[in-house]
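Re: the request from the purification team.
They wanted to know what the chain is likely to look like in 3D before they choose a buffer screen. I agreed to run a prediction and write the result into the notebook, where they can find it.
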Amino acid sequence: MKVLLFAIRSSHKKFFIELKKEDNDFFDISFPKYKWSLSFKALKLLHKVDFKPSVDFAIDEFRVKVLAIPKFVLRIYFNILAIFYYLKYYSILDKKYNALLVWNGGKYRQRIALEIAKLKNIKPIFFENGLLPNRLVLDSKGINADNSVPREREFFENYSNLLELPKQLIPRRAKNQKKFSVEVKPLPQEFIFVPFQVDSDTQIITNSKWIKNMRELFTLIVKISKNTNYYFVIKEHPSSSRDYPDLHQVAEESEYISFANGYETQELIQKSCGVITINSTVGIESLLFKKRVIVLGDAFYRIDGITKSVNSENELLEILNSFDSWVINDNLIDNFLKYLYYDYLIPKDENLYKNFYKFIKESIK
């Protein structure tokens, strides 16, 4: 059995070098960034490959990150580029491999590699940063809304685990430290916390159907604030490179909305009476502190009794109008989190690479 460790970034390659030490013959590492040879034999199978999902993602990501160029222009460009990557990756993903380990799997180049893996019957395995402190995701089905975590409430009602859950979150390092080193203002007595996400992330582009960016989320909160008695506190995402001076100005003039970038996320969660998120990891972290969590996008934790999910402004208003009567099911939430923490996620400890190796071997038996 052989597994290809497919590195798009140098950070992936660094991780794979350590993983390969577990079994040098079992793993091969590919870092195709500097590989320029193309497999023209692959052209005869080009008609069997579906580039549309990868190209659709690339178009949306480019328009968010760079410039809102007309989609038909970008589609031509990314379709041509997809063929280039297809010819480049085809020879790398040899049929001798039983599995392909890839970070995230939802980005443009990764999706192209996964199309080739499908063509050659190579099993994909996905990994990413964990959903809870000191954990990593490793899943043979997918990540985020595509992962293999059970969705049935009954599963978690019947699950049992007496171990303790973590109570300390790990602060995320900000790209723009200045934005998050601002003077903090006193928080309201009661408020609902609304964490921003990264507009170009797969969680927004792929897994958020009716809220397509943080400006749309902000607009929704402004509308909601005029029809409820709740105060809303927003924090920008530390990894986002976007600035929102106009939104800050609107918040300054609003009676019920404010930004609180200077506060740690954990403090905002703990002091809030609830959280509204599209599908952020903050939603899961908020469950650690037994907060009411409302989910607006596609998320694997949209499970009855654990969170409440909405698909429109009216549904959100309905939930907020009965917010005080929302009874939190502590036991069900604990079971869900303990399953994630102890059974699903991989600990970032001295056995990290050993556990990766064991999972991958078992996945391709």
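For the purification team: The first strand starts at residue 3 and ends at 6.
Please add any questions underneath this entry.
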